[in-house]
């Protein structure tokens, strides 16, 4: 296998695995930038995955090939529902954000499996018949080198993820709303003094993360897994969290980190077919994203600073 | 209302609210909440077998709760109990089957190995926090997944590719024919005595030793402790290490008592996350943790009976536990309501 063949083989597969992580990580960027730690991304992804699969199985006759796309919207709604629980607890009720995030994870998994058992009388759903399918992007796939790498046999969801990264960057850094989110996350009291509604801004940011996390889970379920069970989402949400930190709380950074983690994931799946990679024990590839995150946090890859007010409930009038 | 009564009332109210919401969820889903909770009760106390199984479920919960609570007292959030537990589980199982020693050496050695490995797994986030100021929450989460992703290759490595280790030798097992015979052959084991010792040890360290005082002081105010001449960094590492040792012991209970081996895992066992619930509800006090572990362990084991007897998926129990955590974490609101109620009563008078 030549080097180019390896690239053609590994890059699309890496992007394929990265898309759900990109989505969810961008969601994480929004909440953390607003000063709310969202450990609950995993639970939100689980709910997104379950709701999209249930929707897909139930309404496939009505929507036909559009089903997975409508499924994304359904997952988005349920992701926001989960996130709103976190928002109420963490923003209004001043609950410990990490503890409520852990509770969201537990609740998400339990509720999803509960409902699946309620509907199907078993812990695992059937496989969906309408998945996201691959297609060649017209014209672009004919470009030499770049075409086969990015535009041949591509998933449309991948491009959605790319678009979301760009939109997130634009919103956070080029709009007043983004400035408000960042201000609230760095110094809520100063932001409050300037007339920004801290609670409202944080609510919106948490809901955005719920929407993106739900979509991330739905992409994973409808493009990669194909069904839902308790172990469909195992750690992807935490990997998204890691990607966000590895990417230094920046949309583009999170994007790069998610791509890299996708590469590690895909290598651990398809690595057997590639020379050299074959010789690396799979366990190394499996733990690589997590180990790298720790190394990144330890400051060996530049200093990563969390938004200052991240994890601290804002109480008006308290210094 | 004094804050003491409130501290006691908040967890109780959280539990009641959690159970009420659980009942609502069951009713909305078309199940009978009464049948559901009767099945839950029977699952906990219904037979000597169920009771024995309940006790064995509670044992690792005690240790997981102690682990989270201990770190919390020093102001550290150890979400990594899950990973430390897995590694401790493996260590105990390995020592249990790989060596042949008299029981008086073998059993303590296996337990000690689990505590040591758990401590080592927690040492990494501890030292990173102390030396480089890296937030322990993220590092411990990552350590969980490193443990999960490496446990199956580890099991394969020590067993020539098998998916589970051989059973531990009799000399390293906590199981007893006596306990099994009085509980209708449940998996109840002597670990409950070790769990009680664990509770006493944590109480002793925190309340009766200078070191424990320092650990708590660091939890209250790092700068003040530093100013008073305490070594904050050392205390942070020590707190994580002791917390990890407790977590490792939780794994030892599974390895030497419940399962007598370790099998390949596809997802985290969940005991460590439930330990957060236990610690939170137990207000990070050793005795509180003990009772909270009894509650959550009972709920968890009783829930297994719910699908058979009432047709309710046992995930309802996890939903209830998650809701209890949410309510307990939102204690601010419950206190606020209690305050309002207290005030309005006074006005009536």
UniProtKB/TrEMBL annotation, chain A:
One of its GO terms (cellular component) is plasma membrane. The keyword Ribonucleoprotein does not apply. It is found in: Cell membrane. Keywords: Cell membrane, Membrane, Transmembrane, Transmembrane helix. The keyword Transmembrane applies. GO terms for molecular function: transmembrane transporter activity. The chain crosses the membrane at residues 6-31, 43-63, 69-90, 102-120, 154-173, 203-224, 280-301. It is a multi-pass membrane protein. InterPro entries: ABC_transp_permease. It comes from the Bacteria. This is Nucleoside ABC transporter membrane protein.
From TrEMBL, chain B:
It comes from the Bacteria. It is found in: Cell membrane. It is a multi-pass membrane protein. GO terms for molecular function: transmembrane transporter activity. Keywords: Cell membrane, Membrane, Transmembrane, Transmembrane helix. InterPro entries: ABC_transp_permease (IPR001851). One of its GO terms (cellular component) is plasma membrane. This is Nucleoside ABC transporter membrane protein.
């Amino acid at each position: 296998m030549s080097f180019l063949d390896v690239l053609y083989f590994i890059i699309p597969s890496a992007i394929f695995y990265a898309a759900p992580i990109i989505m969810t990580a961008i969601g994480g960027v929004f909440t953390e930038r607003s000063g709310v730690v969202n450990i609950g991304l995993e639970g939100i992804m689980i709910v997104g995955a379950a709701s999209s699969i249930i929707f897909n199985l139930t309404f496939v006759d009505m929507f036909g090939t559009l089903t997975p796309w409508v499924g994304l919207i359904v997952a988005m709604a349920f992701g926001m529902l989960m996130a709103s629980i976190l928002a109420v607890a963490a923003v209004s009720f001043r609950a410990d954000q990490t503890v409520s995030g852990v509770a969201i994870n537990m609740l998400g998994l339990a509720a999803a499996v509960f409902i699946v058992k309620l509907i199907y009388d078993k812990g695992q759903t059937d496989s969906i018949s309408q998945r996201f399918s691959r297609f060649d992007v017209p014209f672009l796939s004919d470009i030499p080198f770049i075409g086969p790498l990015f535009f041949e046999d591509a998933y449309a969801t991948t491009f959605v993820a790319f678009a979301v990264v760009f939109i997130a960057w634009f919103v956070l850094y080029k709009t007043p709303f983004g400035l408000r989110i960042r201000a609230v996350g760095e110094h809520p009291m100063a932001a409050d003094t300037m007339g920004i509604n801290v609670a409202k801004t944080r609510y919106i940011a948490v809901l955005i993360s719920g929407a993106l996390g739900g979509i991330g889970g739905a992409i994973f379920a409808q493009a990669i897994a194909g069904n839902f069970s308790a172990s469909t989402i195992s750690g992807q949400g935490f990997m998204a969290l890691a990607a966000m930190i590895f990417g230094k709380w920046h949309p583009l950074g999170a994007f790069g980190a998610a791509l890299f983690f996708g590469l590690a994931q895909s290598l651990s799946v398809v690595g057997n077919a590639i020379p050299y990679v074959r010789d690396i024990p799979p366990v190394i590839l499996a733990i690589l994203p997590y180990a790298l995150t720790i190394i990144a946090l330890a400051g060996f890859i530049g200093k990563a600073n969390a938004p200052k007010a991240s994890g601290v409930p804002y109480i008006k009038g308290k210094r | 209302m004094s804050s003491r009564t409130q501290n006691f009332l908040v967890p109780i109210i959280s539990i009641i609210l959690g159970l009420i919401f659980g009942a609502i969820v069951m009713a909305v889903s078309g199940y009978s909440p009464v049948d559901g909770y009767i099945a839950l009760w029977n699952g906990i106390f219904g037979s000597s077998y169920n009771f024995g199984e309940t006790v064995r479920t509670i044992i690792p919960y005690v240790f997981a709760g102690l682990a989270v609570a201990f770190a919390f007292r020093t102001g550290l959030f150890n979400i990594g109990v899950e990973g430390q537990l897995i590694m401790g589980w493996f260590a105990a199982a390995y020592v249990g089957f790989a060596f042949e020693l008299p029981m008086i050496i073998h059993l303590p050695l296996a337990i000690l190995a689990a505590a040591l490995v758990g401590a080592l797994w927690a040492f990494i986030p501890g030292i990173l926090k102390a030396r480089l100021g890296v937030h322990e929450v993220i590092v411990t989460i990552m350590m969980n997944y490193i443990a999960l992703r490496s446990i199956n290759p580890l099991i394969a490595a020590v067993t020539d590719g098998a998916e589970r280790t051989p059973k531990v030798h009799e000399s390293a097992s906590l199981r007893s024919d006596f306990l099994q015979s009085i509980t209708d052959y449940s998996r109840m084991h002597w670990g409950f005595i070790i769990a009680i010792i664990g509770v006493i040890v944590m109480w002793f360290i925190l309340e009766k030793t200078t070191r424990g005082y320092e650990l708590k002081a660091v939890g209250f105010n790092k700068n003040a402790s530093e100013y008073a001449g305490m070594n904050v960094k050392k205390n942070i590492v020590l707190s994580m290490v002791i917390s990890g040792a407790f977590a490792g012991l939780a794994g030892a209970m599974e390895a030497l008592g419940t399962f007598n081996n370790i099998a390949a895992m596809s997802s985290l066992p969940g005991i460590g996350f439930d330990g957060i619930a236990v610690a939170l509800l137990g207000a990070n006090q050793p005795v509180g943790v003990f009772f909270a572990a009894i509650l959550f362990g009972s709920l968890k084991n009783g829930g297994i009976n719910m699908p058979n007897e009432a047709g309710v998926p046992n995930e309802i129990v996890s939903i209830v536990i998650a809701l209890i955590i949410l309510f307990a974490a939102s204690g601010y609101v419950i206190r606020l309501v209690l305050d309002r109620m207290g005030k309005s009563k006074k006005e009536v008078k």
